[in-house]
Amino acid sequence: MSVVQPLLALQEIDEVIRNLEKALRDLPERKNQERSRLKGVSEAYTLTQSDLKIAQLNVNAIEGEVDERKKRVQRLRDQQQSLKNNRDFQAMSREINLANGDLEKQEARLIAALDEINPAQARVDAAKAKLDAEEAEIEAFIAELDRRAAESQAELERQITLRAAAATAVTSPQALAMYERLKTRRWPVVVPLSENSVCGGCHLNQPPQTAHLIKRNDGNVVACQMCGRILYMAE
Ligand SMILES: [Zn+2]
Fold this sequence. Notes:
Helix content is 76%, strand content 4%. It is mainly α. Helix 1 runs antiparallel to helix 3 and helix 2 runs antiparallel to helix 3 (86-168).
């Protein structure tokens, strides 16, 4: 058996471990991404809320105007009672009519403003329902991500056990040490040498004797002259 064979088996397990670790590492960011999808819907809801607030403030303001006009009409009527001569009385009647006209205008404005409240409230309710629905959907998906992460964690632990056995199967301690050292800087560590003597890791040409050294299989690993990766003959 080639010295590289058990290293390839080890590398296969390490590949699985790397992928599981990456998935677990990326999980918080993945969750954030999902939750950030709510931003637009949440902003739309806030906007409908502020529209409703404005409509309510508008009603309050016009109610104040109506109140003021009513008081003015009443005040003019009270004043009219104290008027003695007919001309003053009629002049006051005209003023009261004008004030009443003004009051009616404000009352019409109030009705129009009140008409805005229900549709604005309906838009708030619809936006809230949409937000709630999307929130529920995203939280369900996040729960699913957590469930998958728990599976990944269990699988990771299983693979780590397998790895220990696979490392034991590498008979050359030098080869194993070399593999472990390279693993922190390069991936994959064990790569094929192509038919035309190109390293499968860095894609640079190797000297003609490289293929010969690999085929000799004397128990020593053969490293790429450029990137230091461990080479084996491509089938
Ligand atoms: Zn290389």
